[in-house]
Amino acid sequence: MRAWKDRMIKDPAYAAKEPYAKEARLSKFVVYSAATKKIYTPEEFLDCQEKVDIFRGKENTKQFRIIDPMAYLKYKDEELARLREEQDKLKAKISSYLADKTK
Predict the structure, then answer these.
(1) Which residues form a coiled coil (predicted)?
(2) pLDDT computed for residue 45 by the predictor
(3) Band of the pLDDT at 11, cuts 50, 70, 90?
(4) Which of 11, 59, 10, 62 is nearest to 32 (CA)?
(5) Which of 8, 44, 68, 79 has the fewest Cβ atoms nearer than 10 Å?
(6) Where along the chain do its domains lie?
């Protein structure tokens, strides 16, 4: 347990990330980065290369959000279904167009 305390003292980037990681850990959620559109487990977030932007002592709260991983998975499934539907319509349109061109 002492190692993480030492790391917080020596590494300001780690100390800035710890509140996000702690909140995610306690709620069994994940950290979402709006900049990279990636999700991180609390442990991954502490070790990732992303920086918490702090301006005049205040964090940029729009940069990272604590989200429910199951809700995020549902959203991604719905997004994938929309993309598949769009792709199917595009394939049908192109096939129809090419069939008309060969006549």
Answers:
(1) 73-100
(2) 95
(3) confident
(4) 62
(5) 79
(6) 1-67, 69-103
Buried b (16+ CB within 10 A) or exposed e, 36-66: eeebbebeebbeeebebeeeeeeeeeebbeb
Q: Can you tell me which residue has the tokens 């069939």?
A: 99
Residue-wise pLDDT for 31-49, tens only, equals 999 989 999 999 999 999 9
Output the pTM of the full model.
0.73
Residue 64 contacts by C-beta under 8 Å, 6 or more apart in sequence? 20, 31, 32, 33, 34, 45, 50, 52
Residue located via tokens 């609390």: 42
Report residue 27 as tokens: 């709620």
Token pair listed for 95: 């096939």
